[in-house]
């Protein structure tokens, strides 16, 4: 009876010892127990490798001259153009501009002007086209220096048909009996006063008479337009009655 009880006690002790050893081995193999061959008793995790983007600094600094930063360029300011200052013209530097053409002279003893006649049916070949497909043609004449260019030109235009016929032209005023009374320049208008009777030769003579008188007065005075009066009546009114 004693031998059997001793065997049972011994068996129970062996079993308890094996259980304790198994528990000890299980604790050593757990993650918190550390790696037996790593030499790290605390079982700390191994150092992670550095990321590919990290660059380790060198132990020795780079030597050499440090480039100085260039100064910033000054800001560009667009200069405004200089204001034009009017200058007084001098003989050495005349102001550019159109120069009026002097009137032609004959031998330095006379001045000139222009009297206008008609090239009938010319269609603008010899002058300015107007009226009944005619041409207005200017004929230069001379006048004495002390004379009035307007009086000389009107006297030539109202004279018997001589200058026009010599130039192969027609004078629509040759059949009238007009004489020059006076004339003057009113601003840019040449005012001409005539007296007598006006006798146009036909319908086409009316624009011819009006154009010849006006253009001859403008050429003699340098005006831009002319106002013609016959015995105090306008030329247009007199022509409308003929």
């Amino acid at each position: 009876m004693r031998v059997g009880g001793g065997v049972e006690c011994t068996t129970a002790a062996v079993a308890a010892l094996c259980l304790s050893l198994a528990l000890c081995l299980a604790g050593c193999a757990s993650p918190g127990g550390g790696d037996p061959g790593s030499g790290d008793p605390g079982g700390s995790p191994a150092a992670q490798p550095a990321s590919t983007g990290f660059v380790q600094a060198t132990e020795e600094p780079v030597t050499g001259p440090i480039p100085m930063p260039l100064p910033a360029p000054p800001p560009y300011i667009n200069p405004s153009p200089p204001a034009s200052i009017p200058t007084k013209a001098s003989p050495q530097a005349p102001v550019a501009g159109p120069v009026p053409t002097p009137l032609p002279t004959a031998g330095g003893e006379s001045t000139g002007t222009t009297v206008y006649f008609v090239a009938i049916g010319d269609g603008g070949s010899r002058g300015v086209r107007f009226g009944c497909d005619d041409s207005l043609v200017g004929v230069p004449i001379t006048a004495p220096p002390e004379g009035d260019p307007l009086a000389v030109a009107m006297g030539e235009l109202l004279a018997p048909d001589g200058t026009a016929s010599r130039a192969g032209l027609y004078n629509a005023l040759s059949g009238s009996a007009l004489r020059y009374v006076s004339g003057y320049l009113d601003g840019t208008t040449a005012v001409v006063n005539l007296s007598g009777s006006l006798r146009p030769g036909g319908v086409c003579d009316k624009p011819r008479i009006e154009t010849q008188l006006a253009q001859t007065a403008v050429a003699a005075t340098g005006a831009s337009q002319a106002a013609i009066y016959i015995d105090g009546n306008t030329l247009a009114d007199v022509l409308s009655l003929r």
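Confidence is low (pLDDT under 50) at residues 30-58, 81-110. Residues 118 and 170 are 5 Å apart (CA to CA).
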